[in-house]
Structure formats: structure tokens, C-alpha cells
Design goal:
This protein is mainly alpha-helical and about 180 residues long. It has one domain: Rna Polymerase Sigma Factor, Chain: A. The protein is about 60% helix and about 0% strand. α2 crosses α4 and α6 crosses α8. The C terminus is likely disordered.
């Protein structure tokens, strides 16, 4: 008796997809597509951009499926591909922003005065941004991120901690409405 596609584990599907199994890879896309798009949205991508980058990530994943060894989760592996593609695209598009339009000294706020997490995320280096996004945006554990990014667990933990520390420092208001320090001691 053969298993249906829905009954197969991600690793089994990936092995069959690496051998050219389009239906099997389609099942992986069905299982993980919304999670990949969700991660990209949490990283700051507009819905249409998240769809485009997710599609590119799954196409690249299909081409590189033989590289997936099953040591981590398939979801973590494909999310890593998507996160890297998004960061590359964002860096490429940033090159076209005129220097005069960028005020890096400004506090990251949107037009309503609320703190802007997307702008604060730009203060992180690429690895910190990916680790923080995968951990807190995609809900992946540190070991899953370590496996997906092929990094030591301690390195992932350091990147997440440093990234969160930078975000807290960047997003924490310096004073309250009365001009006093907002730090409670």
C-alpha cells in the first residue's frame, strides 16, 4: 500500500522532489507556502512582494532540493532561502534610494508617530535580522534556526540576543511625556 502525498513526511517528499517529483514538491509548497509568505511579511515585505519572493524561494528550493539533507526541518530550510532572497532584494532596491532621502539619524517612527519595527530592523546586520525574524517572526526554535542556517547553536543564540538588544535600544523611547526617563528603576 502506497502512502498519499499528504501522509508522507517532508523529508520523503523532498527526496522524491530531488528526483524530479513535481507533485511531491507541490505538496511541500502547499504545506509551507503560507508560513514562508508570513515570515516575509513579518520581515517587512508588502503582500505582493512576499508572494513574489516566496515564489522565487520555492523555485530555487526545487532546483536545490537535493541539497536538503533532512538534518533540520524543510520549513526552516525553505524559510532560510526566502529570507536571504528578501534581504538581497531589499539591499538591491536600497541602492536606488538617493542619499539625501535617507536620514539614518532619525528615530524609526511612522507618520502617526508610532515606532516602526521595519525601520528598526534595518539597524541589524543581515545575520541578526534573519535570526531574529526566524525566531520571533516564524516561531522557529534556536536549534531549528541553527540547522536551517548551518550555524552553531551558540552563534544563533548570540545573533538573536544581539539583534533583540539592538531593537530594544532603537525602539525604546528615551523619555516619557513629562520629559522624565522612561526607565523604571
Amino acid at each position: 500500500m502506497t502512502k498519499s502525498l499528504r501522509e508522507l513526511h517532508d523529508v520523503e517528499l523532498a527526496v522524491q522532489a530531488a528526483a524530479g517529483g513535481r507533485r511531491e514538491y507541490g505538496e511541500l509548497v502547499r504545506r509551507h507556502g503560507s508560513a514562508v509568505r508570513g515570515l516575509l511579511r513579518r520581515m517587512g515585505a508588502a503582500p505582493s512582494l512576499a508572494d513574489d519572493v516566496a515564489q522565487d524561494a520555492f523555485l530555487q528550493g526545487f532546483q536545490r532540493c537535493a541539497e536538503f539533507r533532512g538534518q533540520g526541518t524543510f520549513a526552516g530550510w525553505i524559510k532560510k532561502i526566502a529570507a536571504r532572497l528578501y534581504l538581497k532584494r531589499a539591499a538591491h532596491e536600497a541602492r536606488y534610494v538617493a542619499e539625501s532621502e535617507v536620514d539614518e539619524a532619525a528615530t524609526p517612527v511612522d507618520h502617526a508617530g508610532a515606532l516602526d519595527l521595519d525601520e528598526a530592523m534595518k539597524a541589524l546586520n543581515e545575520t541578526e535580522r534573519v535570526c531574529v525574524s526566524l525566531c520571533h517572526g516564524a516561531g522557529m526554535s534556536h536549534p531549528e534556526i541553527a540547522a536551517a542556517m548551518n550555524l552553531p547553536l551558540g552563534t544563533v543564540k548570540s545573533h538573536v540576543k544581539r539583534g533583540l538588544d539592538k531593537l530594544r535600544a532603537r525602539l525604546q523611547p528615551a523619555t516619557d511625556a513629562g520629559g522624565r526617563s522612561s526607565h523604571v528603576g
